[in-house]
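Record Disease resistance R13L4/SHOC-2-like LRR domain-containing protein, 484 aa.
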Amino acid sequence: MYKQFFSVLLLMGSKRKSSVSNSIEAIKLQLLRLHPILDWESYPTLSSSPLEESIDSSIVPNLLGNASSLRLLYLRGCGLRGDFPIVIFKLPNLQALNVSCNAYLTGYFPDSIGNLQSLTQLKLSCCNFSGSIPSSIGNLARLSVLVLWRNQLIGLIPSSIENLTGLSVLDLGTNQLTCPIPSSFGNLTQLNALYLNNNHLTGPIPSSIGNLIKLNSLFLGNNQLTGPILSSFGNLTQLNALYLDDSHLTGPIPSSIGNLIKLNSLFLGNNQLTGPISSSIWNIIQLKVMFLGHNQLTGPIPSSIENFTQLRHLDFSNCNTFVDFVHVFKLNNLSFLTLSGNQVSFEERLSNATLPRVYLSVLDLRRNNLQLTYLTFLGFFNVSHNHLMGPIPQGKQFDTFENSSFEKNSGLCGISLTKKCDDSYASTLPPVNTHDSTGSLFEFGWRIVLLGYGFGLVVGMTTGHILIARKSEWLMRTFSVRQL
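=>
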């Protein structure tokens, strides 16, 4: 019995004796699952009173509220369900509470949460808590980590949070909060990470955000914000990740953005940004992800993009910019590229002899005025709305692409289209090369205009459409690091 006890209940700071009293320093319930082996009725009391009631093992027992000396309570990812007992928010000595990743755990935050004067960490992400955040949360003067991501919280962000000047992590993302971003957040100068994305926040981004010079991560995307990206963002020189996508922001990209030389993820897409892309942005050569698509940006992408040697994901879709593919193809770490709705150039010097080995798994070139001469590979493929002509190659991945990948190209013919190729095309169509003995990624198979194929094809074949349709969400999951 006691071996079973230790497998699910780790007592920190004291050894288990014949009874467990209020002298418990910490209890960790870090379980793979709270299976029925956890029989609360069979175990000694966690306080001075015995456990008298029989409780379903996946429900947090109210009797934990009697453990008045409890300091650390970890119930992360235990498959808990039902209502979280509010009596736990009254434990006077509680220093850390983590019940994250229990999707069926419901509850709310009572005003009494403000009495947890010893609390330093509160993590309740990926649960199903509802209601509003009480203003009493501003009484938790020792709090350094507040993570309430992905719940059903509504209402305002309480202004009292400005009192939590020791916060290093504040995560209120993916809720249903409806209010402006409080300007008083500028007082939280110890913040390393601020996540407010995926809410219904309104109004402009307060300039005081520029005071948070210790920030590593700033996520404000997918809100209903207004106004420009402020020049004060240039003060945030420690930023690694900046997510402002899907937020209705307007105006130009400020030149001060070039000060953020430690950035590896920049998401400004799906806004209403205008004007030329600031030349200073090309100073951020550590970028791994650049998402500027779906704005009204103008101007060319300069040759200095070749310096972005770590870039893996690049999205300039629907920006009306001019892109020389020669420069893009020198980014040999690039795996995701979408340039739809721009002016893409494939110059004659783009040849098998000059191109480096690339590993693109997703390429989107929709709605460009293209006349392709050279290219290959790919698992996801879309060249619709161009001026391509000639037969579509047969075999391998080309047999898997949907008809919509080739539509609105009057000169194309082939099995994938209603327009079939005549004998003159068929006799000149080169055979499908099923092996690449040279190691080159480029097999120029499609006469004059279309894409052939070589190695490195399969990676994006089954996921390409998902990546294109939900790239912002997917990339955020891939490149963001959250505390749970």
